[in-house]
């Protein structure tokens, strides 16, 4: 590439070969940068999907562990203190509470996965469209 400290030659002073070389070099640089932008954008979206999936899995595991560890004791506590020894109402109330917790975690996981899906490089595609428009002479550069 040309040294940034040296000003470029006037367009009239450069030969056609120099102009073609300059355009080719700049086009190659532009394409490489577009590809890098697309890779970065896709990796960001994949990261969001993975984080959302991990939280969803963790929510399921913790919901299951909570059901195993707390369900029995809480149900018997409700049965003894609230329902005067009747065994079944405490278990139903407890199940409803745990289902609400699991639904909240599942909603969070859904929003996280949806925020990153599908992993399409939208900014890179828009930049490529703008570049195509400018190169075709139909638009102005920003």
- Strand fraction band? under 5%
Low-confidence stretches: none
Query: Rg, please?
Result: 30 Å
Structural domains: how many:
1
Decide which structural class fits the backbone: mainly alpha
What is the distance, rounded to the nearest whole angstrom, between the alpha carbons of the first and last residues? Answer: 23 Å
How would a textbook summarize the main sheet?
Answer: none
Helical coverage, percent range: over 70%
Question: What secondary-structure arrangement, pairings included, does this model have?
Answer:
Layout: H1 16-81, H2 88-116, H3 122-135
Helix pairs in contact: 1-2, 1-3
Structure description:
It is a single chain. The chain is mostly helical. It has one domain. 77% of the residues lie in helices and 0% in strands. It has helices spanning 16-81, 88-116, 122-135. The longest helix is centred in the middle third of the chain and has 66 residues, at 16-81. It is rod-shaped, with a radius of gyration of 30 Å. The model has no long low-confidence stretch (mean pLDDT 82).
Structure in a nutshell:
The protein is an all-alpha fold. The chain is built from three helices and no strands.
Based on the model shown, name its key terms.
mainly alpha, about 140 residues, 3 helices, rod-shaped
């Amino acid at each position: 590439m040309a040294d940034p400290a040296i000003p470029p030659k006037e367009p009239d002073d450069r030969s056609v070969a120099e102009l073609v070389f300059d355009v080719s070099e700049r086009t190659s640089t532009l394409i490489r940068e577009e590809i890098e932008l697309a890779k970065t954008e896709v990796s960001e979206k994949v990261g969001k999907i993975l984080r959302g999936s991990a939280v969803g899995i963790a929510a399921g595991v913790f919901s299951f562990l909570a059901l195993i560890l707390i369900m029995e004791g809480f149900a018997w506590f409700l049965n003894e203190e609230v329902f005067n020894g009747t065994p079944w109402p405490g278990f139903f109330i407890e199940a409803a509470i745990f289902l609400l917790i699991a639904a909240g975690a599942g909603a969070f996981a859904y929003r996280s996965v949806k925020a990153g899906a599908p992993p399409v490089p939208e900014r890179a595609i828009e930049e490529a469209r703008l570049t195509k428009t400018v190169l075709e002479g139909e638009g102005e550069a920003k």
